[in-house]
Write a structure and sequence with these properties.
428 residues; mainly alpha; binds s-citryldethia Coenzyme A
C-alpha cells in the first residue's frame, strides 16, 4: 500500500502521495496541493523541496556519500579518466572502448574555436574576470554553431556536448593567455583532454609544456570530482533555463554565472585568498575561526559548510590526499596546505562548527591542488566549470527528455501593498 501524507488545514483534510526514491528518500508529492486547497508551500531556498526526479547523481549528506550513476566517486580515483566519466553522466552507462574512442575523436575534432570567436579575445580587457569571459563565450558558441540551437535527438545532443566539453578548454586557455599577454597556443590533437588544456595554457611557441603523469591524473581527478552534484545552485539554474526550452549553450552559460558566486563555485578562489592572508601574516588561523563565528564580522570560513553534506565532503577527502601526492611528485611543499590542515583541525574541534555540522567541502583543498599545477587563482572557478559542464549537460538532457517536464515557474507569497490608486505627478 503506497504511503500517504495527511494535511489538515482549517476544516479541510487531504491526503497526499509519498514518493520513495531508489535509495529510500521520501517526498510528499504536492503537485495537486494548490488545486485541492488553494495553498502553496513556502521554502525560499528550496532546502526542503525536491524539484525533480533524477537518475544521475546520488548524494547522502548524512553519510558523506557521492555516486555517479550508482558508482561511488572513490572508484574513479585509480586511473582517473574525465572523458569517460563525462560520458557516464550524460549517457547513463560507462562507455565501451569504441564509444570512448569515438567520443574522444569528437572532442579532438572540435577543440578549435572558430577564428571569428578567437579574434574576439583580442578585444577583451586583460584583467577581465575569467568567469565573465567563459559565460559570454559559451553563449557566443551559439552564434557559431547555430545548427545545435535545437537539439532534437541523441546524435545532435552528442555533437553539441562534444563541442561544449571540448571548446570550454580552449576558451579557458585562451582567456588565461590573454590575461598574461601571451600568444594563443592552439590545441594539439595528439594530446589527451587534460594534457591539451595544460598545453594550451603553458606551452610557448618555442617550447612545448610537457605534463607529468601525476599532474595529468590529478587534473582528471579534479574534473571528475566536480563533474556533477545533483541539484546544486548552478545545476538548478541550468535546469530552470533549459525548462523554457532555451538551447544548451545558453543554459550552460547561465550555469557558469551561478557557479561564479563565492557561496558556490567561487569559494575555491576565496579559500586560497583566505589561506594566503594567513600565510602573509595578515590573519592568524585562530583569528579566522573567531571571525567565522562572529556574525557581525561578515566573514565566512570559505571551503567549509554545505547545504547537503552534514559530514565530511567525500570530494574534500580525496582532494586533500591528492594535494600531498602531487606536491610530493613535484618535490614541492605548499605552506597553504599546512595552514588549511591547521584550520580544519581548529574548526573540527570547535563547538560552533561541530554543532552546525560544518565540514570541509570540495572547495577547501581544490584550489591548493590547482595551484600546485601552476593554475592561477582566478582560473580556479573556471576549472570548476570545466569539470561541472558534463553534469550540466546530463541534467539538461534528462529534463529535456522528460515528457512530463514543464517550464519551471515557482509561486510566491505576496506581502506588498493592497490595491492602491495612481496619483498624478502634480498631486504627489
Ligand atoms: C559548493 O550545493 C552543492 O552541491 C554545491 C557544491 C557543488 O558541488 O555544486 O557542493 C559546491 O558550492 C560548495 C560550497 C562552497 N561554498 C563555501 O565554501 C562558502 C562557505 N560556506 C557557506 O557559505 C555555507 O556553508 C553554504 C553556502 C555552503 C551553505 O549555506 P546554507 O546551507 O544556506 O547554510 P547556512 O548559511 O544557513 O548556515 C547554517 C549555519 C549558519 O549559522 P546560524 O545562523 O545557524 O548561527 O552555519 C553557519 C551559518 O552562519 N555557517 C558558517 C559557514 N557555513 C555555514 N559559518 C561560518 N563559516 C561558514 N563557512
Amino acid at each position: 500500500m503506497a504511503e500517504k501524507a495527511t494535511l489538515i488545514v482549517g476544516d479541510q483534510r487531504i491526503e497526499l502521495p509519498v514518493i520513495v526514491g531508489s535509495e529510500g528518500e521520501r517526498a510528499v508529492d504536492i503537485t495537486t496541493l494548490r488545486q485541492q486547497t488553494g495553498l502553496v508551500t513556502f521554502d525560499p531556498s528550496l532546502g526542503n523541496t525536491a524539484v525533480c526526479k533524477s537518475e544521475i547523481t546520488f548524494v547522502d549528506g548524512e553519510r558523506g556519500i557521492l555516486r555517479y550513476r550508482g558508482i561511488p566517486i572513490e572508484q574513479f580515483t585509480n586511473k582517473p579518466n574525465f572523458v569517460e566519466v563525462a560520458w557516464l553522466l550524460i549517457f547513463g552507462h560507462l562507455p565501451s572502448r569504441d564509444e570512448l574512442t569515438e567520443f574522444s575523436h569528437q572532442l579532438t575534432d572540435n577543440e578549435l574555436l572558430h577564428e571569428g570567436l578567437k579574434h574576439q579575445f583580442q578585444h577583451i580587457p586583460v584583467d577581465a574576470p575569467p568567469m565573465a569571459i567563459l559565460s559570454a563565450m559559451l553563449n557566443n558558441l551559439a552564434c557559431f554553431h547555430q545548427e545545435f540551437l535545437a537539439v532534437e535527438d541523441v546524435e545532435s545532443l552528442t555533437a553539441a556536448a562534444a563541442r561544449l566539453i571540448s571548446k570550454v578548454r580552449t576558451i579557458a586557455a585562451f582567456s588565461y593567455r590573454r590575461s598574461q599577454g601571451l600568444p594563443l597556443i592552439y590545441p594539439d590533437p595528439n594530446l589527451r583532454y587534460c594534457a591539451n588544456l595544460l598545453h594550451m595554457m603553458f606551452s610557448l611557441p618555442y617550447r612545448q609544456y610537457i605534463v607529468s603523469p601525476e599532474v595529468e591524473d590529478a587534473l582528471n581527478l579534479v574534473f571528475i570530482l566536480h563533474a556533477d552534484h545533483e541539484q546544486n545552485c548552478s545545476t538548478s539554474t541550468v535546469r530552470t533555463v533549459g525548462s523554457a526550452r532555451a538551447n544548451l549553450f545558453a543554459s550552460c552559460a547561465a550555469g557558469v554565472s551561478a557557479l561564479w558566486g563565492p557561496l558556490h563555485g567561487g569559494a575555491n578562489v576565496e579559500v586560497v585568498r583566505m589561506l594566503e592572508r594567513i600565510h602573509e601574516g595578515g590573519l592568524s588561523a585562530e583569528e579566522c575561526i573567531r571571525l567565522a563565528k562572529d556574525k557581525e564580522s561578515g566573514f565566512r570560513l570559505f571551503g567549509f559548510g554545505h547545504r547537503v553534506y552534514k559530514n565530511y565532503d567525500p570530494r574534500a577527502k580525496i582532494l586533500q590526499g591528492t594535494c600531498e601526492r602531487v606536491l610530493g611528485s613535484l618535490n614541492r611543499r605548499d605552506p597553504l596546505l599546512d595552514i588549511a590542515r591547521k584550520l580544519e583541525e581548529l574548526a573540527l574541534q570547535d563547538p560552533y562548527f561541530v554543532e552546525r555540522r560544518l565540514y570541509p567541502n570540495v572547495d577547501f583543498y581544490s584550489g591548493i591542488l590547482l595551484r600546485a599545477m601552476g593554475i592561477p587563482t582566478d582560473m580556479f572557478t573556471v576549472c570548476f566549470a570545466i569539470g561541472r559542464l558534463p553534469g550540466w549537460i546530463a541534467q539538461w538532457k534528462e529534463q529535456h527528455e522528460d515528457a512530463d517536464s514543464r517550464i519551471i515557474r515557482p509561486r510566491q507569497v505576496y506581502t506588498g501593498p493592497n490595491q492602491a490608486d495612481y496619483v498624478p505627478i502634480d498631486q504627489r
